[in-house]
Amino acid sequence: DFYAQWRSYDDILTRLQDVVDAAPGVAVLESLEPATHEGRVIKAVRIRDPAWAPGAPRIVVNSLLHAREWIASMVGTYLAEYCVDKKRSDPSWMAGMELVIVPVVNPDGLVYSQTSNAMWRKNRAVNAGSSCRGVDLNRNWPKDWNGGESTSTNQCSETYVGPSWASEPETQALGAVLLEAPVNLHLDIHSYGEMILGPWSYTNADHPDKATIDAIGTAMQSAIQSVNGKSYLYGTGDAGGALYLASGVAPDLSTHLGAYGYTIELPPANAWGSAGFQPATSEILPACTEIFEAVKAMVEWFRVQD
Ligand code: 0X9
Ligand code: ZN
To answer: Where is the Peptidase M14 domain (predicted)?
Structure first.
């Protein structure tokens, strides 16, 4: 089974191509621009209901901003595959809606992590005047960029913000999808910790729509729990001290633009070192099936709004 072992970026691209080839008229595989520092193309699977029109509901799901979080690339690929299959077998699902899934936003980092340094987090940018490579792709976004919550201007830091906001090709490529106004719901998939985090990330101040944000977040939490009984923590900001605040993250940009932008931290709940980021491969498939239910809960939230 594809989801029984870790897969390379090339394996994932082949899988995504096969998925859309088997679903003509349901989904397309798009190449985002620009390409990465090492020339790789970031791919998006777009599922658009025939009744969708500009202004109708859009959900964007992305994964693998951080290279070492391999399980996120597996979950993103699974979501693309199973959402396409569901739309194909049940055309009434996602009526009037669009769903864009970007399973691997940081392919250079994923390849480097899988071949050279498993604990690599950032992209593979060459930093001017430094021998340290990489920018943290979850600190490079314009909302509160370089704002000081878990950020660094040291090029050697794991949380290096980059020379300017959106300096990185990967930020620009996903940013183009987030800027296709309007995005209504956005989910950025990471690991680890088993948490759902609503906006904001850079501050514990409440978003004006906190009640709705919490309702959607706890709906995702219940959906995950319904699969295998697993309880993800739900919170906003630093989740009551369970995590930390972070400036310049992707979901805060989507939220700033009018969406509700969430972060999910996949399994395991707790671990030490590389066992957290690359758990037993038996963890992959349960995480995939759980997050698929969370995405269905996001879709369901729109249906209830009608
Ligand atoms: O630090 C990050 O970018 C995320 N954690 S990770 O271990 N995957 O690197 C958390 C960012 C979101 N943080 C909050 N919403 N507080
Ligand atoms: Zn991460």
So the answer is: 5-302
